[in-house]
Design goal:
- The protein is mainly alpha-helical.
- It has one domain (21-217, 227-460): Growth Hormone, Chain: A (Up-down Bundle), CATH 1.20.1250.20.
- The two termini are 15 Å apart.
- It has helices spanning 21-53, 57-83, 93-110, 119-152, 156-187, 191-216, 234-242, 245-259, 262-273, 280-296, 299-306, 308-328, 333-369, 374-377, 379-402, 414-441, 448-456.
- It is globular.
- α4 crosses α13, α4 packs antiparallel against α15 and α10 crosses α13 (333-369).
Length: 469
């Protein structure tokens, strides 16, 4: 995969300065905003569509699946677009900034399905708006935002720190959304009126933080092309990425990470129909998120001391134990809360390390091929997320339909209750076990120090020392 190596540019990948905490926090603020679109939709679109818009769960699940899979494909193209972007504002920053307000508006529109539309009209409206969010504007925004981890720094500790801070902000947003959305909807009038006001508030909370991130963070670590002035063909980017086993493994890891999150989409149903109190969702969300938020403060030190792979897999084993506790006591609120809390602790190392793993893989691919893929490699973050989340939402919708879920019923048949338990406990546990296998195969860390030294010297592509791996 070698290409002719020109004279090294002064701006090639050199050691970047340590990031200030203020810039890390500014970066993390972006994921706080993004979740007021992503988590709001992932957690509540199904129950809004079934109980307010009157769309069958299986149908909305299928719509989401089609849009998300298409979206996952467009993500790969977006990575190439970022790698070829040459703007005064930067490569990723303009995409984060300018797509944010549009994303907020579309999120508002998704939770305002016109009641005057007939069933077919509603389905078309939902598909078009959902497709615009997932396949275009969230794709552009999230791939660009995620790639900032690589563009801002090449320091390993800073990358893990950015991942931790990012997900601290994200989990604070998730906790707020899952705790207060049903309360806000009820406060503002229930039914469509309540969803309209809540969605308007969330649209602002989505757009403004992302615009702040896009405007204020700095890109310092931009890999140089071997032949300046030429665009990098998408086919070449695609080829060098999918020729690398670590890229493929990380892509699968992201799919599994988001497939595991069927528990987010089913939590409101679980609270409503198993514990007979929708407000219990707030308690379940706190149990699932507060330990994770606290743990993310310590994750960079743990990863630095024990390596990313070891700390992640120990955490995943803890997560499996937690799911076993929940499986034994699925209808005992106290034990379920305990299980969710232990599970959150177990998932901390992987959540903190996800962005760092992707950035590391980008370095590996660049070293092997000589092709800058900092934006494209982060497309796996969004592509894996979209495909996994699309399947996750579809699986939730399908499982409810197969289980005989009855919208707005005072009680549900036992088959629907089994479906809810499967989505909260058994299916996520299976995904965690598969993630353990994938992470065990990501054994690249021992090679990275020497590889980064080679990159700093411009020894990439055909000029690299192939014996290092």
């Amino acid at each position: 995969m070698g290409m002719t190596q020109p004279r090294r540019s002064e701006t090639d990948l050199l050691k970047t300065p340590k990031l200030k905490m203020s810039e890390k926090l500014t970066f993390g603020l972006g994921d706080f905003g993004a979740n007021y679109s992503w988590t709001f939709i992932a957690s509540f679109v199904t129950i809004y569509m079934t109980d307010v818009a009157g769309i069958a769960g299986a149908l909305i699940g299928t719509i989401i699946l089609i849009a998300r899979i298409t979206d996952g494909i467009t993500d790969l193209f977006m990575g190439a677009v970022i790698d070829n972007t040459k703007a005064k504002m930067g490569k990723a920053k303009p995409w984060v900034f300018w797509t944010a307000p549009i994303l907020g508006i579309l999120t508002f529109m998704l939770f305002n399905v016109p009641s005057s539309f007939h069933q077919t009209g509603k389905v078309v409206y939902i598909f078009v708006v959902y497709f615009l969010i997932s396949a275009i504007f969230y794709t552009a925004n999230n791939v660009a935002y995620s790639s900032l981890t690589s563009f801002m720094t090449n320091d390993k500790e800073d990358r893990v720190s950015l991942g931790s801070i990012r997900f601290i902000f994200a989990n604070v947003a998730v906790l707020a959304i899952t705790t207060f959305t049903t309360i806000l909807v009820a406060t503002f009038g229930n039914h469509q009126q309540g969803w309209t006001v809540t969605a308007a508030l969330y649209a602002l909370l989505c757009a403004i933080p992302l615009m702040v991130t896009g405007w204020f963070v700095k890109e310092r670590n931009v890999a140089q092309r071997k032949t300046e002035g030429q665009r990098i063909p998408f086919v070449l980017i695609f080829r060098v990425l999918f020729a690398d086993k670590y890229f493929i493994l990380t892509f699968i890891l992201y799919i599994l990470w988001y497939l595991r999150q069927t528990e987010n989409g089913i939590r409101v149903y679980y609270a409503t129909y198993i514990f007979d109190n929708p407000d219990v969702m707030g308690l379940l969300s706190m149990a699932a998120l507060l330990p994770m938020i606290i743990g993310l403060f310590f994750a960079p030190k743990i990863a630095g001391k024990y390596s990313i792979r070891k700390s992640v897999n120990v955490g995943l084993l803890i997560s499996v134990v937690a799911y076993m506790i929940m499986a034994i006591f699925p209808e005992n609120l106290i034990w379920l809360v305990v299980g969710l809390g232990i599970n959150a602790i177990g998932l901390v190392p992987l959540q903190a390390a996800l962005s760092a793993i992707v950035a590391d893989v980008g370095d590996l691919v660049y070293w092997k091929s000589g092709v800058p893929v900092q934006g494209s490699v982060f497309s796996i973050t969004s592509a894996g997320m979209k495909i996994g989340a699309g399947l996750q939402s579809a699986i939730v919708g399908w499982s409810l339909s197969i289980g005989g879920y009855i919208a707005n019923a005072s009680s549900q048949p036992n088959s629907a209750v089994v479906a809810m338990k499967s989505m909260l406990i058994y299916f996520p546990m299976a995904m965690v076990i598969l993630m353990f296998v994938i992470v065990a195969a990501l054994n690249y860390e021992k090679f990275l120090p020497q590889i980064r030294k080679e990159i700093e010297k411009g020894k990439i592509g055909a000029d690299r020392a192939e014996h290092l791996m």
